Amino acid sequence: MNKEVKQSDIRFTKKSVFNKLKELTGINWMTAYDPTPKNSKTNTLDKSWNYSKIFMNPPFSKSSTFFPKMVDEFIKNKKTKKVLVILPWYQVEDIKSRVTSRPKWYSREIKRLKKVANIKTEHLGNQEFYNPIDKKDIFVRVYAIIITRK
After folding, report:
1. 47 alpha carbon, distance to own chain's centre
2. Is the Cβ–Cβ distance between 88 and 47 less than 8 Å?
3. Going along 1-150, which residue ranges are E strands?
4. DSSP letters of 6-37?
5. Segment 70-99 mean pLDDT
6. Minimal CB count within 10 Å: which of 75, 98, 101, 102?
7. Distance between CA atoms of residues 113 and 119, nearest Å
8. How far apart, in whole angstroms, are the C-alpha atoms of residue 142 and residue 128?
9. Average pLDDT estimate for 109-128
10. pLDDT at 11 over 60
């Protein structure tokens, strides 16, 4: 395993989450391009993401790298019409009374996206993901950020 990837980042989206997303959006996100690494040898950050539909459940510790890359690719590639990103609650919520508040990179990238996209944020609550290292299901409180080209 790549030393830069935290063990807490190793979680795969389960079919139940994809079903919920399809119910929410009417889109089968299982057929979308997924630029997030499945192993330590994959580096999609150096490649173009010129696909009509992108689904991204990034390593949460690397969201500040993957999300801006997605924004760059969305702005650059007119072919990309729809994107769905899964992020943890602490990167999306902006509640001033909490110790943890939305990071500046998220707000900056959403502002960039608003120029070319419609953005809808949906709280999904605790969703089940699969941890292949422990071979266990884990629950993570997440949001879906649904992005469509204007």
Report:
1. 17
2. no
3. 12-13, 53-56, 82-88, 117-131, 136-149
4. -GGG--EE-HHHHHHHHHHHS--GGGSB--S-
5. 89
6. 98
7. 8
8. 10
9. 96
10. yes
